[in-house]
Amino acid sequence: MTQHTSSDAGTDSLVEEAVGTLRTFELTEYEAKCFVALTRLREGTAKEVSEVADVPRARIYDSMDALQDRGLVSVQESKPRRFRAVSPREAVELLEQECRSRLDRLGAILPRLGSPDRSTGAGEVWTMEGETAVSERLATLVGDADEEVLLALAVDALLGEDLVGALVDALDGGVEVTVGSPDESIRDRLGDALDGADVVETWTWWESVPIEPGAVTSVCMVDGDALLVSADAATDLPGVRKHRAVWTDSAEAPVVGLMRPLLATAIRGD
Q: Is the pTM of this model over 0.70?
């Protein structure tokens, strides 16, 4: 009876994870298993790969041909033929390049699909929820800034790397950036990251830190036009809360006119 050690179980788990991840890059199951097996062997014959990958011998050659076409495998025309996988670093770089090329193409195609005769509608306000979604929307709004960013932030969870990066890029691009927070740790982090920005203490929407349940978590206005307001919201699950936000990129939305003077006073002290 074959004994399986914890080390074997750990390796099997890693193999399964690697195969599953490779399949998201449009490799078939056999191709993914063959590449993982060949990575473990570094090089080998079809028989050796078949045994390690648990793939039928008859499917090894077509899988290797497909992997060779994608630059992931080299072939030695010996008898029997031998196969060699590129290094893990090279494999990741090749797959990353494929993804980047597809995303670049998608980025070129999608804007051409919008109807020139259909407007987005003046004054429309949208809703969204989820910590990641709200943080990414904040980063997107900041990334579109041309002149000014006013941001009030009360929770560190929304201060993702994308948002910090967007604020840094805005500053580098000559945008006036003012950030307010009641939380000293947030002010310290942004003060270190945003050389040249005004980082100030503000309590307009808050009474304490950590903030009370249901309180506003962020307010952001960009160029006096785009606006996002998020708040802490309870869920049906005990002890679980999430961020909900309303946002608009239209200066014609009434809420923008209402928030503009309040934000200027609350953050800049105008």
A: no
